[in-house]
Amino acid sequence: MENEHFHLTFVLIEFGPILLSITTGCNSGFGKAAAKYFDSIGAYVFAICYSGDSGEHELIATCSGKLTPIQLDITKDDQVRKVARTVRGMLGDRGEFNLGYVEQDSTST
User: Fold this and answer.
1) Beta pairing class for 44-49 and 67-71
2) What is the DSSP letter of 69?
3) How confident is the model over 57-87, as pLDDT tens digits?
4) 3-state DSSP call for residue 86?
5) N or C: the chain end with fewer CB closer than 10 Å?
6) Rounded to whole angstroms, how far apart are CA atoms 4 and 54?
């Protein structure tokens, strides 16, 4: 993994009894583990995957129907806007919410 850079972000939103996670980097590693964990505690999970590889297929096979894998290149503004509209549409008007945010940025050389 020479000169490889990855960026992982997840957001956990609480609407009363409803938890929702938007997690990037779900093809492997910490992102996939975070998506599985949030699914296991009953959260609705938007699992952002860069490509439809085996990691995405594993999430579909092992997680509940509350997990939605989304293929997204986070460097493409049009794709990010489309996903934002999808998430907003699913959330609707649910009033106040609590938000938790974690970001991991790592560079391997």
Assistant:
1) parallel
2) E
3) 999 999 999 998 888 887 888 888 888 777 7
4) helix
5) C
6) 20
Higher pLDDT, 7 or 20: 20
Q: How many CB atoms lie within 10 A of CB 4?
A: 9
Tokens of 62: 């092992």
How far apart are the C-alpha atoms of 61 and 18, rounded to whole Å?
23
One-character DSSP codes across 4-51:
EEEEEEEEEEEETTEEEEEES-TTSHHHHHHHHHHHHTT-EEEEEESS
Domains for the chain: give ranges and CATH numbers. 13-95 (3.40.50.720)
3-state secondary structure of 71: strand
- Please give the Cα distance from 8 to 21 (Å, whole number): 13
Q: And the tokens for 87? A: 């998430």
What does the alpha-carbon distance between residue 35 and residue 17 come to, in Å, rounded to a whole number? 18
pLDDT tens track for 12-47: 777 667 788 888 888 888 889 989 999 999 988 988
pLDDT at 30: 86
